[in-house]
């Protein structure tokens, strides 16, 4: 089931075009296992395209996937325990809070707003993850396309600027960002991980290793 990253990028661009994103992406990011000298045997490639607009950030992710599945059935479930997931991590430099957004192949979402200390407190079972849920279903929008024959799936995530407190129209915005995945399979104990960020360990919450990007924002 080999495919080149250029083929995957072409499919991502075609999906973006279907979503009305006909311009060239501002950034093209490849999902890799940067913490390994060589990718694991079960690694499959993925690509993310970023499009900044006057209203928000559009993210297109296209992934190779042998077994596309998720047992998620609703909003703000523990999606990483339920199958395949695309995960978006984004923060503004200098602000401790960051956003974590999950989208499954059946288009269910998990939305979180927290800090590194909050995440650590949940990891240690000192607090509950539900305390950090973003309960507004319109915080982001998402859509999904699955190509079972080609073993690929794509998602379009739109993050409105107003959802993250940006109400003016700046000429540019700087982000710390990581686009990651859980590539799960039924009966497989652990998912295969990969990320656009140059992580030195397979842990997506290493914010100091996320990619810092400055995107030009089109005028309204």
Automatic annotation (TrEMBL):
Source species, domain of life: Bacteria
Name of the protein this chain belongs to: Carbohydrate-binding domain-containing protein
């Amino acid at each position: 089931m080999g495919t080149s990253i250029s083929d995957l990028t072409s499919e991502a661009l075609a999906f973006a075009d279907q979503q009305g994103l006909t311009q060239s992406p501002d950034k093209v990011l490849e999902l890799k296992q940067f913490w390994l000298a060589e990718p694991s045997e079960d690694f499959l490639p993925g690509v993310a395209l970023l499009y900044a607009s006057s209203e928000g950030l559009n993210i297109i992710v296209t992934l190779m996937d042998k077994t596309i599945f998720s047992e998620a059935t609703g909003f703000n479930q523990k999606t990483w325990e339920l199958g395949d997931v695309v995960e978006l991590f984004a923060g503004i430099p200098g602000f401790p809070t960051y956003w974590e957004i999950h989208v499954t192949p059946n288009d269910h979402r998990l939305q979180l707003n927290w800090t590194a200390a909050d995440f650590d407190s949940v990891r240690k079972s000192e607090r509950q993850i539900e305390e950090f849920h973003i309960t507004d279903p319109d915080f982001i929008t998402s859509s999904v396309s699955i190509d079972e024959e080609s073993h690929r799936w794509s998602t379009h995530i739109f993050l409105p600027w107003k959802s993250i407190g940006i109400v003016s129209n700046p000429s540019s915005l700087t982000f710390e960002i990581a686009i990651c995945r859980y590539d799960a399979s039924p009966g497989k104990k652990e998912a295969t991980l990969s990320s656009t960020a140059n992580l030195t360990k397979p842990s997506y919450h290493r914010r100091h290793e996320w990619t810092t990007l400055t995107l030009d924002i089109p005028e309204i």
